[in-house]
Specification:
The chain is an alpha+beta fold. It has helices at about 60-75, 85-100, 115-120, 140-145, 150-155, 190-205, 220-230, 235-240, 265, and strands at about 15-20, 25-30, 50-55, 80, 125-135, 160-170, 175-185, 215, 245-250, 275-280, 290-295. About 40% of the residues are buried.
């Protein structure tokens, strides 16, 4: 256990991590007739009485961003971009810690990390993590976080490209929250379908199969959105399509990559056309959003 001097004290540092896992349904119907690992948090309250001030420490937040990016540059990781939505979530949680007089990633009745981020930001997130700390300055907080392996890992993780920072003052101490995330490109529905179509064509070429003609069914997007609304794969509109076609349904954060196990159906020599339905939505299972896909093969 690391021990710090009283003058440079960081209390109860905690880390939380989440990764979104897409779902896949590869039990394709034959048209011819056939949810974030979280590290354990040890909370602690400060020994001195709190003197709350509700103003957020904007300059300290900027200093923490600069320190983080300096450390990331030395480690060869890309710089983090400050996001206003993630910062709103971080500030809200920092205020909650001040009011509770302790550090935590989730207080009783408080949403989870991913729910907090989803409520405050419109970004589509693939991964997220959180550091919390209590210290006397931005420099001290950063140094102590870098001395803790899990917090250092969050700070230097090259997968993260955006961050929200929240700092509130209580007397001479600072409640610090760092919310890291990997934000994905915001594709339009047409862009999503074009990327899936390119992946299908590439898969066919690699299997030395004929190129398929793409003809998107009129109700394909509606079928995809029916899954999003139900927050599950295999809804009634999908089953109706499966009475006429081979249908693959899945969720994805990366439309340019086909789901594992789809090759057998896509490589079939008897195919001549395909259709794509796509629907982006936020659901209870995917609070920060995901693409729901219906890939129909004929």
């Amino acid at each position: 256990m690391l021990k710090f001097s009283r003058r440079l004290l960081a209390l109860a540092l905690g880390t939380g991590v989440m990764t979104l896992q897409p779902a896949v349904h590869l039990a394709a119907a034959d048209g011819s007739g056939q949810s974030a690992h979280r590290a354990t948090l040890k909370t602690a309250s400060a020994s001195a009485p709190d003197i709350p001030y509700l103003e957020y420490e904007f300059q300290v937040e900027q200093d923490l961003l600069q320190l983080a990016n300096q450390s990331r540059q030395r480690a060869g990781a890309p710089s983090l971009v400050l996001d206003t939505g993630l910062t709103a979530a971080a500030r809200s949680h920092a205020q909650a810690m001040l009011e509770a007089h302790q550090l935590s990633h989730q207080f009783s009745g408080e949403p989870t990390l991913v729910q907090r981020l989803a409520a405050s930001s419109s970004l589509q997130l693939e991964q997220a993590a959180e550091n919390v700390a209590l210290d006397y300055s931005a420099q001290g907080g950063h140094e102590h976080l870098m001395l803790s392996p899990p917090h250092r890992a969050n700070l230097l993780n090259p997968a993260y490209n955006t961050v929200g920072l929240g700092v509130v003052r209580s007397g001479d101490r600072l409640y610090i929250v760092q919310d890291f995330a990997r934000a994905l490109p915001a594709y339009s529905a047409d862009e999503v379908k074009d990327r899936i179509a390119a992946a299908v064509s590439q898969a066919r070429r690699q299997a030395s199969r004929n190129v398929l003609f793409r003809h998107d069914l009129q109700n394909a997007d509606d079928a995809a959105c029916s899954m999003a609304h139900a927050d599950k794969l295999g809804t009634l509109p999908v089953r109706q399509l499966a009475q006429r076609f081979t249908v693959l349904t899945y969720t994805t954060l990366h439309p340019e990559t086909l789901p594992a196990g789809a090759s057998h159906a896509i490589h079939s020599p008897n195919l001549h056309s395909f259709s794509i339905g796509a629907c982006y939505a936020r659901t209870d299972t995917y609070p920060t959003g995901i693409q729901w896909i219906v890939l129909t093969l004929n």
